[in-house]
Design a protein that fits this description.
Layout (H helix, E strand, L loop, with lengths): L2 H9 L1 E2 L8 E2 L1 H6 L9 E2 L8 E2 L1 H6 L13 H8 L3 H28 L3 H11 L10 H17 L3
Antiparallel strand pairs: 1-4, 2-3
Helix pairs in contact: 5-7, 6-7
The structure holds zinc ion.
The site of zinc ion has 8 residues, from loops.
């Protein structure tokens, strides 16, 4: 490699989310512990370029925001610009899913409930002022996924 290429390469930072591949795969998802939140997809952190900037790294944590779940491009743009409101919304959404995961595991492991009954119970007690909600079908699918993953990697 020529010295110029070497210098050029050093001035570019490897994207910490996809490790320079431009694509987030299951290994990256496991490394960042986002099994229940992300699916393999082109990397939204570096725009699939594999490279990122110091500025981006300082403004946006590598594990922030959903990668593919209902995030419109305009929101991705805002996150990249470090928009605090959008980042806050992203964190709230993460909390929503964190709670849902805990809820599911609690009812599944301690009360032996299946995905269907957990979904029903959740919807029955859902706070109408909750910051996020899911359609029944999506909720059920998500809860099924949580249960499936809890069986394949017990913590
Ligand atoms: Zn990337």
């Amino acid at each position: 490699m020529s010295i110029f290429k070497l210098l050029f390469k050093k001035s570019d930072l490897e994207c910490p989310r996809c490790l320079g591949k431009g694509f987030v795969d299951w290994e990256d998802i496991q490394r960042l512990k986002k099994e229940l939140k992300w699916v393999p997809a082109p990397c939204a952190y570096c725009d699939a370029s594999g490279k990122t900037t110091k500025e981006m790294l300082s403004k946006v944590p590598v594990d922030t925001a959903f990668l593919t779940i209902d995030l419109p491009e305009s929101e991705i743009e805002k996150i990249k610009n470090g928009d605090t409101k959008t980042l806050k919304k992203g964190r709230l959404k993460e909390l929503f899913f964190d709670d849902l995961i805990k809820y599911t595991l609690h009812h599944h492991l301690n009360k032996n409930m299946d995905a269907q009954s957990i979904t029903d119970l959740y919807l029955k007690n859902e706070d109408s002022n909750a910051s996020f909600s899911l359609e029944r079908e999506n909720l059920l699918q998500y809860i099924e996924k949580v249960i499936r993953l809890s069986k394949s990697n017990p913590e």
